[in-house]
Every structure is written in structure tokens, then in C-alpha cells.
Amino acid sequence: MARNRFTLLAAVLGVVGFVIWAHLASGFPVFHSHVAAEPGWEQFRLAYSVRDFGDDGHFVRAAQNGYNVFYFTYRYAWRFTRKTALDAKNACASCHRAEDLAYAFVNSDRYDARAGKRLSFEDQVMRCFAEHMDGFVPTLYDPTVRDLRILARAVAHHLQLGEGALNAAAQ
Amino acid sequence: MRRPLLILSKSAAIVLAAGAVYLLAEREHAERERLRAAPVELTPACKAKLEGYALAPGERYRSPYALKTLGTPVDARGYSEADVRAIQRGCNLIDDLQGQLASRGAAERWNATRFVRGSRTSCDHCHQGVGDKQDAEGHRQVGSLGLGASWAMADMYDRFTGLLLSYEMRQMQCFINSSNGFKPNAADDVLRDVTAYSRFLSAALDLRIGNRYPEQGIDEIPASATLRRGDDYVRGAHLYRTQCSACHGPQGHGTVVEGKFAYPALAGPQSFSSDSRMNFAAVNSVMPGFICRNMPPGREGSLSNQDCRDIGYYLSTLPRPAGDKQGPLAAAWQQFMMTVLPPLAAYADGLRNRHPPIENGDAAD
User: What pLDDT, on a 0 to 100 scale, did the predictor assign at position B364?
Assistant: First the structure.
């Protein structure tokens, strides 16, 4: 009887200990509701008018995570970027600017002659990971893909882009 | 000797079965490719809508609506022929989800009815004006669930699901709750084409990403927007009979005009589920907002806030399919009520017709 009680107590303490460790000491982003502020986020936030929490704090946190994925891809989406530990560290920002992402977003869902089909923004992100990053394809529902899309939305909103907006600078 | 033969034959059967499935999938895939490349036969409403917005393949797209409202042309990236076909198919889906106007059968609508339980639901029952409701002067109707504006504001936090809802996930919600059905895959042609059409509307109306427009969503009416701050079932039932039942039927089961389900069911097995945001019992400010801004057709805005809330309250008491969140007991109860109530209500209506109510007390004088 006493042994059963001890086992139960140990199990409860184990669960409580794990929760406290996960939230306070583990450092794993998956256990946090907030997003780590990486270098440059404050400047980015001010440059693209992303308010601290905005009207929709969930959206802003997703945009911030999108920022982390975009500029620090090798840290926040490492599992999609490299096949081996010896491969070079890449980030989306190595090739793209945030504005490019926004214009790609408002010009997505169009027919792509190379692929021979209509490509969504998410399809393009997946292709980037598979080809340019020489990595693996995230699923359509992965927060990495979602947050990159939301980052693109936030920038597109700042630039006040509409559907099919033409990037004058790129032409 | 017999054992290896048995293993070999079992392996061969598995390979053959897998091969058959593969060939079947290949055939379906090829059929979908053929449908994507086929010319689209537009419904009359879509023909008018897309011609009005000058949709055509080309390098650049210039919206006539933007030119008219802004006075200056707005150039955007044009559409390829494949894009135009996707937009046309999306419009057809919104206007005629059940495929009643499709001359080549359900495949023309990607067999979208497999995601819908009833046979009386179409997207344009809620998203009126083929997802872009305007008055005679071309002003966009406030709170009319405009699809273009909805695309512009997608990816925001949704208080009902607790998720950042992408546009595709929002459509899934529509299929699950408003159509009481099943969710399509995010990459399904149904969702892709509706997204293409919504994005085109957004371009045609010159909407900007992340801006809130009055036609987006529903102009909700909470209790605090009325003077009495209470909802009246009896008054709601009376208003329903006088204002709504001519189209939606005396028991809210919808009506059929020229073989097409013109007016949707508000109760009964063909109706939206109890999990739907339209269900007053689930969210009591959405249905009144929809009624006040969009009903009755042609006389929008003629009902007061209190009228709309009372009608919504009355409708919430009618039996409808249980939602996924409610479990089997609630589903069984709703099913029982949907079976038992209609004949009882019809009998009660018959009694009322046999003994008409005394008007204004004249008969007592």
C-alpha cells in the first residue's frame, strides 16, 4: 500500500517537475507561448510597422516566428534545411528580402510553366526548402510554412499591396 | 516446398493489389488534369460577374471596378489561361456547389457534394452575389461575407477555433459547420479554385492585404445593440412567419424553385449544424447580423436589430443536425426531434388554419 502511494507521489512529482523544467529551464521553443526575440527583430518591427502585439497578438507572434525562420532558418527550421550536419548553414534571407516575400505572396497561386501547374505560396516555400536549401519538404500545415506566409502578409500589409501587385523595383 | 509457394503467392497478391490501387490513382490523377485543362462553362451569375470584372488571360490585369471607383487605372499582374479557368471554376463552385447547373455532371464541380451532407446547401446562400454582394449603385454590402475582403483578412486569429486560420482552413470550417459536412484537403481542387476566385475578387475590387473592409465577415448584432436587451421567442416566431417563411418554408426547410434549391434550409436535416456560427444558440450575435444586413433579399435593412435577434432566437430552437463537438447523445436527440417535430408542427399549422386567430378583437365586439 505504502509502496503504491510512493509510486503515485513520485509520478506526480515527476510530471510537475517536467512541466516546470520544460517551461522555465529547457529553453525549447516548443514549450513556450512567447517567441524568442532574435537580433534585428526590433528594427524589423519598427521598419515594417508590426506593432508589439497589435490588434491580434497571435498574428504578431506568428509574424515574429516567421521573422526568426526567415533570418535564422538554420536555427528555427534546421530540420528542413540540411541533409547532414556538414552542409552549409543557409537562411531564406541569404537569397530573399522581406519585400520579395510579400510580392511573392500577392503573386502566388498562379500557373508556373516550369512546374506545369498552379503553385501556391506554400508550394513555393516547400520547393525552396527542397531545392535551394537542399533539404526536406515541410508539410502544408507546418508552423514554419504558416509563419513565413504570415510574415509575408505582415510585410504586404505594411507596403499596402493588393493582389497581383507589380514590383516596380524588380522590373 | 508448399510454404515458399504460399509466401510467393501472398506477395504477388499484395503487389497486384498495390499495383491496382496505383493504376486507379493514376487514372484519377489524369482525369483531374484533363478537367483542369478543359474549358469552363460558366453559370449565368458567374458569366455576368466575371465579364463585369473583365477577366481574361493576359500579361496585365486592369480592374474596371477600380477604374470606376478610383478614377485611375490600377495595373496588376495578369492571369494565364490556367489561372482564368481556376477562377471560373471557383466562381461556379460558389454559385452552384451542388452542380445543378452543370451540364457535364458533378465532376464539373470536383464532386464537391462529397463534402456536404445535405442536398440544399450552396456557398452563395450565405456569400450572396457570388461572394461579392453589391447594391444597384455598385456599393459593396456591409457585412455580406464578401470573399475578396475575406481573403485580404485571412490568417488572423479566430476566436471560435482558437487558431490562426488560413483561408483554406476557413473554407474547411464552412464545409464542416455551415454545410454540416466534411473537410476537403487543403490542396484539394475545390479549395484551390475557391481561393483563386476569392483572390481574383480581391484584385478586381482593389483590396489591400490586411485591411479590414466593411463587407468582410458579418456585422454582428449583440444584445447591447438593442433597446430591450432580451430576445423574444414568440415575437421571433411571428416575425419568421411574416417575413421569412414565404421563402424558407413554414418549418424552415428551404424551398426549391425550378429544380434549384433557391432558399436554404434553416432547420432540419438539410440545415447548417449546431456548431455553425450561424446557430444563435452557439454565437448569438452572428445570425442577427446576417439577417439585418442581408435579409429579406431586396429589402435589406428593413428589419430592426431587435427583429433580427428575435428571429435568430426563434431559429435556434428549431431542430438541426448536431455538430461534431456535441457528441452522440446530442446527435441522437437532434435526429429524433428532426423526425418527430415536422409532422407535429404541420398538424399544429393545420389546426391554426382551421381556426384562424381573432384579429384585433373585432369578433368579440
Answer: 33
The three-state secondary structure class of B60 is strand
**What distance in Å separates the CA atoms of residue A119 and residue B209, rounded to the nearest whole number?**
19
Model pTM score: 0.89
- The reply to whether A50 touches chain B by the CB within 8 Å rule is no
| Chain A: closest CA distance from residue B34 (Å) | 12
Chain B nearest CA to A142, separation (Å): 12
| Class of residue B102 by CB neighbours under 10 A (exposed 0-12, middle 13-18, buried 19+) | middle
Spell out where A48-116 has E strands. 110-112
- Residue B246's Cβ-side half-sphere holds a number of Cα atoms within 13 Å equal to 6
* Mean pLDDT for chain A overall: 89
* Distance of alpha carbon B114 from the chain centroid: 15
Instruction: Give residue B355's pLDDT band: very low, low, confident or very high (50, 70, 90).
Output: low
pLDDT single digits (tens) B52-86: 999 999 999 999 999 999 889 999 999 999 999 99
Contact between B97 and B123 under an 8 Å Cβ cutoff? The reply is yes
What is the distance in angstroms between the Cα of A14 and the nearest Cα belonging to chain B? 30
Q: Is B192 on the interface with A (CB under 8 A)?
A: yes
Strand intervals (E) in chain B: 60-62, 75-77, 157-158, 163-164, 255-257, 260-263
Please report the ipTM that was assigned to this predicted complex: 0.87
To which H or E segment does residue A81 belong?
A: helix A78-81
Residue-wise pLDDT for A5-63, tens only, equals 899 999 999 999 998 888 888 777 667 767 888 899 999 999 999 887 777 888 999 99
Pick from B156, B203, B211: CB nearest A163: B203
Identify the bridge partners of residue B60 per DSSP, sorted by sequence position. Answer: B77
Nearest to A164 among B77, B86, B186 (CB): B77
Q: Does any CB of chain A come closer than 8 Å to the CB of residue B186?
A: yes
Residue B280 CB partners (closer than 8 Å, separation 6+): B286, B287, B288, B312, B313, B315, B316
Closest approach of B155 to chain A, Cα-based (Å)? 7
Mean pLDDT for A89-97 is 90
Of the candidates A89, A110, A109, A104, the residue with the CA atom closest to the CA atom of residue A148? A104
What is d(CA B197, CA B40) in angstroms, rounded to the nearest whole number? 13
HSE on the CB side for B222, CA within 13 Å? 1
* Beta bridge partners of residue B263, listed in sequence order: B255
Type of residue at B93: L
By Cβ distance, the residue of B78, B86, B202 closest to A162 is B202
Give CA separation, B63 vs A36, A104, A108, B49, B140, in Å.
Answer: 43, 21, 18, 12, 16
Whether residue B265 contacts residue B125, with contact meaning beta carbons closer than 8 Å, is answered with: no
Q: Considering only B8-17, B88-97, B175-184, which range has the smallest mean pLDDT?
A: B175-184
| B80 in A contact zone (CB under 8 Å) | yes
